Amino acid sequence: MEETRSRRKRGRPPPPPVGCSSFNRTVFPLLLAAAATSSSSSASGNLQNPHARFILRRFLRARLALLTTRTPPCSSPSALERLLPEGLLALFPVLFISRWPSVAALGAEVVGAATLYSLEANEMMASDEGVVKGLVCALGSKSRRIVKAALHAVMDLSTSPVGREQLWKASAVERLLSFFYQVAKTSAISAVHHSMERGSDVCSNRRPVEGKIVALVLDVMVILINTSTEILLNMIPRYLLNRSLPLLQELWKKIRGASIPRNWGRCLHFTEYDLASTIFRLSMKQANPAICEIDKIRISIFGNEISNFENFMLKYWENSPFLLSGSSNILEKDNAVFSSLVHSLNPTSTDDVLDSILMELVSCPPLASDELDINCFMNEMNSSLGSPLIYGQDIRVLKARELTAESLKNYVKKEVHFFENGMRKVFIDGDNAQKCKEAFQNGFTVALRGMEFRSAKVAAIAKGLEVLFGQPSVGANLYLTPPGSQGLARHYDDHCVFVWQLFGQKHWTISYSPTSVLPRLYEPLSSLPCSESEKGGGLQLTLNEGGKVLLMLLFIVGMKRGKNYQIPSLVPKPEQ
After folding, report:
1. What does the UniProt function comment say about this protein (predicted)?
2. End-to-end distance of the chain based on CA atoms, in angstroms?
């Protein structure tokens, strides 16, 4: 009989909420007294009441049942006022600091349920400054149960624009970044990664609590940061960025390319692209790479005498190639700018170098020069950030081959691409990365674009060259050519070129343009008159390690052939 009565009791719907005035007269004083007793700030023995915790838990569970079972939701002002009276909202900040974790956690759960009850209820909770700040403060609790409930409530609150705005004002992101740093610097990140590799459920009760907390923190951070504005991002203290970004980047590297198991769906909602977007947004405030001093750039190229630079600008600039002899020994002793870049590279085996390029580097999506709103760019590239290298855009694998057709008398060699550069994007990952390594062994050159976006030292040199030569921009490409092979066929460039032989040796043939008129961009060489290089003439150069040459406009380059090539690692050493 008692069992049947208990079963009927559990099956009954929760009673309707009392009116607001009745709540303020009868319920609120009782809850206030109980909350004051449960407050950690009033934990003296004289104020302890054995019934206070029971009253608070009983009321909060009943309110939670009302918010989660009543359908459809009542969004009228009077209904919301009965469901969430002002007196109840005023109690939440006190409940969040209760010395009873069950009470504080239940309070956060009620707030989370209210934010999901309806959009109006969400805005009501978000508009209460005390509730929002109380939730953010609860993130710093020593009780993992309270922290977990608060994280869920913050995530629920972030489902509305008003909620996200109020969370930013309450410094929720700063608190989350600090909490993430404290937890993630332990083994929690490894626990998350290992769970993904095995496909196990990080939310399972059998998993460590820290792994669950990290997953929740990441979810909330990704949501708030990826929906923020540049103004809000600038409010984050720099020291928090410097501490948190390396950990986020480490986590992204570990989960990159890994599919998030389905059983993670109920607690981990972001993708690797979402995390890449978060890292990108946080990185925008980091200091730009320092520009190399102009005098150091000039001295590194032309020596200490300023007359050498002036002579170059008067006689050679846009008129004739200019060869600068040098060696690695000279670079190490006298060339502070370029030697620092050489030292940042770690020479290893060919396979390791190619792995560092093909598997560790990511795509650099093009940014339109007239793009003024970074948020527009982020929305367009949302699913592309952090993707593997894209063939044609970031990297090319090509080889110059001789043609025997008599109809092509003006061409001695033609560039052959290893991958078809068609309409479909080719990502260099997995099998394609292995194919690139095999192509290199078969004589193909690996050409990597956008080194100024991938290395801080290259970016600093590029910026310095911009100022020194008065150019709007300077790009940097890297070419890895195996011994005895030729990557690019005879061609011309529509811009001035500064070539620096980092390692190994290459042979060049350079000829003057047969016409004083600049060819159109990407105009085929067959449309130009016959040049000296086709007659066996032209300037013959062999660049050894450390050698540099400046190629001006109006020159046709008859290609580079690698010789005795020792390949360095292209991943810069960690900054000290």
Report:
1. Oxygenase that can act as both a histone lysine demethylase and a ribosomal histidine hydroxylase.
2. 74
Which of these, 558, 432, 390, lies nearest to 487 by C-alpha position?
558
Residue pair 386/252 in contact by the 8 Å Cβ criterion: yes
Residue 50: count of CB within 10 angstroms of its CB: 7
Q: Could you give the CA distance from residue 91 to residue 108 in angstroms, rounded to a whole number?
A: 12
Q: Where does residue 122 rank: exposed (0-12), middle (13-18), buried (19+ CB within 10 A)?
A: buried
- Binned at pLDDT 50, 70 and 90, residue 163 comes out as very high
Q: What is the pLDDT of residues 362-414, one digit of tens each?
A: 888 877 655 566 667 777 776 777 888 989 889 999 998 876 555 445 546 77
For 199, list phi and psi in degrees, rounded to 5. 75, 15
Give the separation between CA 394 and CA 32, rounded to whole angstroms. 63
Local structure of 415: helix, strand or coil? strand
pLDDT category of residue 545 using cuts at 50, 70 and 90: confident
Q: Report the DSSP beta bridge partners of residue 415.
A: 400
Return the biggest CA–CA distance within the chain.
109
Q: Is 388:426 a contact under the CB 8 Å cutoff?
A: no
- The answer for residues whose C-beta is within 8 angstroms of residue 533's C-beta and 6 or more apart is 490, 509, 510, 511, 556, 558
Quick one: tokens of 80?
């919301």
Instruction: Return the pLDDT at 2.
Output: 46
User: How far, in whole angstroms, is CA 29 from its chain's centroid?
Assistant: 51
Of 549, 551, 555, the residue nearest 516 (C-alpha): 555
Q: What is the mean pLDDT of residues 60-89?
A: 76
Distances in Å between the Cα of 60 and the Cα atoms of 52, 67, 169, 301 are 12, 11, 27, 74
Give the pair of three-digit tokens for residue 440. Answer: 């290199």
CB-CB contact of 567 with 353 (8 Å): yes
- Which among 490, 556, 476 has a CA at the least distance from the CA of 519? 556
Rounded-to-10 torsion of CA 421, 424, 428, 431: -110
Q: What share of the chain is helix, strand, coil (3-state, %, to 5)?
A: 50, 10, 35
- And the tokens for 217? 């923190």
Q: Which amino acid is at 310?
A: E
d(CA 369, CA 467): 19
- Joined together, the tokens standing for residue 416 give 């052959």
Q: How far apart are CA 157 and CA 167, in angstroms?
A: 8
- pLDDT tens sequence across 244-278: 888 888 888 877 766 554 444 445 677 788 888 89
Q: Angle of helix 119-127 relative to helix 144-157, nearest 10 degrees?
A: 120
The answer to whether 511 touches 533, Cβ cutoff 8 Å, is yes
